[in-house]
Fold this sequence. Notes:
Blueprint: H1 11-14, H2 35-42, H3 46-75, E1 79-83, E2 86-88, H4 91-98, E3 105-110, E4 113-121, E5 124-133, E6 136-141, H5 148-159, H6 167-170, E7 172-173, H7 180-200
Antiparallel strand pairs: 1-2, 1-3, 3-4, 4-5, 5-6, 6-7
Region (Disordered): 1-42
Transmembrane segments: 52-71, 179-199
Keywords: Membrane, Transmembrane, Transmembrane helix
Amino acid sequence: MRRERPGRKNPYKTGMISGKQPLNAPTRKRSQRSPECCAREHFPPRKKKGKFLLVAEKIILYYIFLIFYSMSLHSAPSIVWELSGEPCETRDQALSGIKNNTEAFIICSRGDEFLQATCNSPENYHCEISFAGGKDRELYMTPKDLDYSRLHDLFSRYAAGEDLSHLKKEWTLDAHKPGYITAIVVVLAIIAVLAVIIFSS
């Protein structure tokens, strides 16, 4: 039988053998974690990443839409109709207003360019077209008056955005004097100003 020396503790009773726990000490329970829990700690959830990518794609598509929309606005200038100096909503309203009306004129503006016409007599319409050529503006006139059907077709094609630059070879250039219709507009404006002055005095 093994004897114990006086003054020396039995390491087997105290359980202090090289830092080991006592035999009768309660064992510590290790926290049991599932593999899914460990995976969530090391890798972020995919839902947040998916939402971020979805928002980024929407922002990119929005800016692409704005770019193409602005390009379409620059490439297709707006069409403005005028009947005797008053704005018109539709093409038919402007063309019906000038039909056989010698006191009326119509203007179809397309950006910096325009097409205008006046009625000289029933079924005889004088037309002028303006092309923006840098700082100088070129104005061309019809060598002969047009009938109403040709006038309607010409203005319809112009409003649809058709290129009518071939008229430079067919019509007469009027670059040294103001256009016939432009002169009429100026005269009517002067008469209106004089009328306002007379009635106000």
